[in-house]
Amino acid sequence: MLNKDYHRLLKRQLKKTGLDTSENPEFIQFFNMVNDAYKSFDKDVKHIENILEESSRELFVVNQRLTKERDKINKKLGHIVDNIGGVLFETDLDGNFTFLNNAWAEYSGIPIDNAVGKSFRTFLHGENIEGFKRFDDLFSIEKEHIKFIFKNERNGEIMWFEVKSKLIKDRQGVSTGFIGTIIDVTNLKETEIELHKASKSKDEFLSTMSHEIRTPLNAVTGLTNILLMEDHLPDQLENLKALKYSGEHLLGLINDLLDFDKIKSGKLKLIEKDFSLNYFLESIKSHFGLRTEKKGLIFNVIKENDVPDNIIGDKLKLAQIIKNLLSNSLKFTENGCINLSVSNLGVKENKVTLVFKVTDTGIGISKSRQESIFESFMQANSETSIKYGGTGLGLSISKKLLNLQDSDLKVESELGKGSTFSFEITYKISNRLSVYEPDMIKMQPSYEPIDINVLVAEDNKMNVLILRRFFNKWGVTFTIAGNGEEVLELFNKHDYDLILMDLQMPKINGYQAAKIIRKSEDKSKANIPIIALTAFAQTDVKKKTQQYKMNGFMGKPFNPEELYKLLKSFSKAYNKKAI
Which of 137, 180, 193, 444 is most buried by its number of CB atoms within 10 A? Predict the structure, then answer.
C-alpha cells in the first residue's frame, strides 16, 4: 500500500512497477529519502521560478525605460539632423545617396524622395565646382577625406556650398560608402570675392602709381648714365656718381615702399646676384660721406677680419637696410660720429656669415621704446616725429627684409648715449675671380657700332630721348612707335631684327601687341624677338611676358651695358657667328 504523503512522481513510479512497500519494509527508509529529494527539488524549482518571474518583471521595466530613452534620443537626433545648418548625407561607394536630411530639400528645391537612390552626379555639374575638378577625383575609395566648394544657381540666385565627406568602413575595414555635410558658405564666398576685387583694385592702383613715380626717376638715372658716358669736367665726376647712386637707390626704395604689402604678405622674393662688397661699401661711403660732412659729422666705414669681396646675395635689399639704418643715425645725431662696420663671423660650406653694425652718438632710445620702434609707422615718441619727421617705416621694413633672409635686426641703446643697430646675415661666396664694377664708377666705356634694326615701342618722351642718345652713340638703326597701333602698322610694313616693347602704351598695350604679332600668318615675322620694357618689379612681369611668348624683359632705367649687350646679342653680326 502506497503512502499518501509520497511525492506524485514517486507514487507514479511505484504504481507502475507494482511494488508494494508494505511487503518490503526494508525499502521504506529508502523511499522516504527519495520522496524527500523530490519534494526538495520541487521547492528549488519553485524558488527558481519565483526568481525568474521577478527578473522578468525587472527586465520588462528596464526594457520599457530603454525603449523610451531610445525613442527620446532618436527624436532628438532627428530634430538635430533636420534642423542643423546644412545638409547631412550618406552615399554608397558609387556616390548614390542613401540618406539626406530636410536641409537638402530647402537648399536644392528637390524632394528627398526624388534624390535618395540617385547619384550626386545628377545634381552637380563639374563646371560649377571650384577649380573644376573631375568627378572621379572627388569621390574615390583612395581618399579618406574629401573637401571642395561648388556653386548652385536657383531662381536666379547664386549660392556657394562647401562639401566635406569621409569614407565609411565596417568593422572588417571594408569601405561601404561616404558620409558628409554640405554647408552654405555664400556669405563667406561673397566676402572673399569682394576682398579679391578690392585687392585687385589696390594692386592696379599701386601698379599705376608706381609706374607714374618710377618714370621720372628712370629719366633722372638714364640721363645721368648719358652724362657719365659723355665728356664732363673732372670735378663733376663725384657729383655725377652721387646723383646716379641716389637716383638708383631712391628708385629701389620706392619699389619696396610701393610693394610694402608684398613684404607683409610674404610675396616679396629675394633676387640673388653676384656683387662686390668692396664697391658696395665704397658706394655707401661716397653717398653718406657727403651728407655727414655737410652736417659736421664723422662717417667711418670699417671692414674687419678678412671680409670677402665677391659674394652672392640680394644687393638692393642689403642697400635698403643699410641706408635705412644710416639715415636714422644721420637724422638723430647732431654731433659726433656714425660708424658702419662689417666683420666676418666665419665661413662654412662656401657660405660666409657677416655681421653689420651701425653705431652713432645720437639721442638714443629708452629701454621701454626699443621694441615698439620696429612696428610700422612707429617712432620713439611723438616729439621725435614732430622734430625729426619721417614715416616710421624704415626700421619696420628693414626688420621684415631681414626676416625674409632668416635674419633679424637687433638694437642696443641708452637714452642720450647713442644707438647700435646690428644684424647677422649669411651670403654665398662667389666663385668668380672678379665681379663687374658698378656703372657709377665707369666714366666713358668704349662701345662698338651695332648692325641692328630695332622697332622701339615707347610712349614716354623722356625714355625716347634717352634711347635716342644711346642708339645714336652705338650706330643703331631704330624706329620709334608711340602706341600699340603704330607698332603693328610699322611691323607689317617693314622688317626689323628686334622689337623693344613698352608694356604700358595707349590704344593697344605691349601684351596685346605681342599677342597679335605672334599670331601673324608670316611665321618668319611672327617669331621676331620681342623684349619687354618695364618699370615694374621683375616678379610682376616675368611670368606674364613668358605667357605672351616674349623673349625676355629689361627694366627701367636702362642700364647702358646691359642694353648694349642685349642689342648685340640680336645683331646681324652676332647671328652670323652663331650660324
Answer: 180
